[in-house]
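Work Package 4 report. The design task specified in the project plan requires that, given a folded chain encoded as structure tokens, an amino acid be chosen for each position. We show below one input record used in the internal validation round.
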């Protein structure tokens, strides 16, 4: 069962005392993730275990026991995300382009980078950040990318034409007609 109550997801997880304990939780997480069919990552508190273990399965299954992000790039990217604890919700988040992770079950450091031709690298990099954030009681909504429509409104006239996009479709509309769309998933291409 995947936890969907926000108050439970806000619990900060405790470190596991041994790699063995972590591996047991990791195996449970991978099983749940496989059963979810569309998930690419899962954190222990999403199945009601408040311990610092999470799994990511984009290119290969990775179990992270007591993981820590020890270094991040300054550069960030905007990424579309979902979460098994918030079915049918999709938002855009801001994530670091590169993160370095240490975990008790991996020797040395693990590097994840979205700066690659392979879109799976971006998925994996964003997913690692998403799952480790869960262990700190944070969800994707804490990393939501926010637009600043107030600044835009001041600059553009109501009848001025603007180009907007939702990532797949592009439209040219008068700004007053584009406004409701800009408040949902659409963003301005040019002012
Ligand atoms: Zn999640």
């Amino acid at each position: 069962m995947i936890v969907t109550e926000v108050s439970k997801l806000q619990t900060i997880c405790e470190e596991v005392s041994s790699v063995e304990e972590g591996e047991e939780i990791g195996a449970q997480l991978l099983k749940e993730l496989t059963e979810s069919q569309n998930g690419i990552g899962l954190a222990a508190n999403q199945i009601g275990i408040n311990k610092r273990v999470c799994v990511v399965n984009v290119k290969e299954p990775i179990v992270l026991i007591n993981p820590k992000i020890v270094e991040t790039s300054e550069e960030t990217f905007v990424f579309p995300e979902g979460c098994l604890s918030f079915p049918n919700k999709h938002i855009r988040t801001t994530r670091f382009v590169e993160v370095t992770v240490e975990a008790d079950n991996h020797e040395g450091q693990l590097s994840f980078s979205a700066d690659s031709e392979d879109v799976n690298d971006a998925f994996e990099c964003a997913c690692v950040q998403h799952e480790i954030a869960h262990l700190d009681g944070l969800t994707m909504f804490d990393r939501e990318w926010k637009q600043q429509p107030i600044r835009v409104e001041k600059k553009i006239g109501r009848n001025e034409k603007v180009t907007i996009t939702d990532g797949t479709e592009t439209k040219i509309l008068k700004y007053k007609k584009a406004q409701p769309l800009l408040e949902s998933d659409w963003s301005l291409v040019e002012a």
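Residues 83-85, 130, 134 surround zinc ion (CB under 6 Å). Validation will be extended to a larger panel in the next phase.
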